[in-house]
Amino acid sequence: MSPTVEKAARTDAGLASQLRLSVMRLRRRLANERHPDNELSLNAMAVLGSLHRHGELTVGELATLERVQPPSMTRTVTCLEDLGHVRRRPHDTDGRQVVVVLTDTGRATLLADRRRRDAWLARRLAELTPDERAVLREAAPILERLSAS
Predict the structure, then answer these.
(1) pLDDT for 68-85, tens place per residue?
(2) How far is residue 53 from each of residues 56, 91, 98, 140, measured CA to CA in Å?
(3) Which of 34, 40, 68, 92 sits most deeply, having the most CB atoms within 10 A of its CB?
(4) Which residues pair with 99 in a beta bridge?
């Protein structure tokens, strides 16, 4: 770390700037590690991930989780449905609603994408010292909390 960056990271504003830049670069690198045959956008992949984590959800619940407007989520779900990654089914108790269900194709696409990117990141982590990996193990839950707030 350069002396200027190290000094800036001592303040909250400096830390915020350094984290923003580092997280954005890491996200971009991970996005570049996607399988070349995966035609889905990162937003569509995030929807598959939400369905995998939370199970069946309404379009409104997905929109809330992904922090987008319901019409945008409806377009994403329609695209995913057209490609066979999700299906819609009637809500069990509310006839006005439908729930979105992850299909086997969607699950396979998501898991293959995760395996590929996790493998890339695991190779990068292996280049770090044990102490550096320990720091990241402690930081990961904190970064997760920041991203969820």
Answers:
(1) 999 999 999 999 999 999
(2) 9, 19, 19, 18
(3) 40
(4) 58, 89
pLDDT category of residue 36 using cuts at 50, 70 and 90:
confident
Torsional class of 67: left (φ above 0), alpha (ψ -120 to 50), beta (otherwise): left
CA distances (Å), origin 88, targets 5, 47, 78, 97, 102: 49, 14, 9, 10, 9
pLDDT in tens, 6-34: 555 678 899 999 999 999 999 999 988 88
Contact 7/17 with Cβ under 8 angstroms?
A: no
